[in-house]
Amino acid sequence: MTSAIPLVDLSLWRHGSDADRAALAATVDQALIGSGFLMVSGHGIAPELRARIRDAVREFFTLDPATKERYATAVGGRGWVPPGKEANGYLLGVELPPDLKESFVSGHDHSSGDADVDAEWFPPNVWPVEVPGLQALCDTYAVAMRELAAELLTLLAVAAGLPDSWFVDRCTDSPHTFNINRYPALNRTGPVEEGQFRIAPHTDFGTITILDREAGYGGLQVCTREGHWIDAPVIPDAYTINIGDLMARWTGDRWTSTLHRVLPPSADAPDEELISLIFFFEANLDQVIESFPPPLGQAHDYQPVMTSDYLRSKYAAIAVP
After folding, report:
1. Is 308 left (phi over 0), alpha (psi -120 to 50) or beta?
2. Which SUPFAM superfamilies does the protein's record reference (predicted)?
3. For the whole prediction, is pTM greater than 0.90?
4. Which CATH number characterizes residue 216's domain?
């Protein structure tokens, strides 16, 4: 499986020959058929920006709980999602303990023109006054991520043999979710419950995920087609990219939305705290996802589903009452 998670150099996509671009697209197609994951370098996003976001959000996460509570939100909202509020294991119909994490969440600053849609999908972001620099950093990052997502979707369209803008045209007014996850150290969480993870096994819900992560004992694992869990590779300054359920469904399961998990904190590194920057990019809310038929897709019995309906159901499924 590790060999099926290739490193793709976007500079070759941007500046390479037609042959380079075709070879890159073929590599991406095979990676998404096999594991649903790839690594991306040459993206041009400064590591300093990501480091400054981590420094700023650590200031927020280390505030006292009563202060953070002023920014609390439910799963799918914007602001602080406290520990114990999300359980991805519910997606598999398993009563696992809540995930061992807390999150700070922001989203697309956008108006659809429909007050009800905006209230649900584009509410105002919530920024802590105690960390005044966080908003500008996250806003800058979100712009860069949407540009990168559009470029990746163009690459995916070519990989699928579609017109270059096929996916991008269907994501122009889409929501995104920028989750900054804090995975606390074992010396803060105390003993881990049986079956508890930093994030329980799950697939992502939507279109494409762009992940910037830190290496650690309690890191990301991906499930192989044979059902074995393996460590996902960590490459300095490279993003981890994977597709979600809607993209897999869109392609008629040509591409794979793969189970993955984040391991619990380890006794081998009791002081290890990790912070991940996770950007979930979606299709337009009113986009009806109709699965590609063979030969592009596989034989399937998927019914069309609207992006907003699918995402709404998944957010509800992982929320801890």
Report:
1. alpha
2. Clavaminate synthase-like
3. yes
4. 2.60.120.330
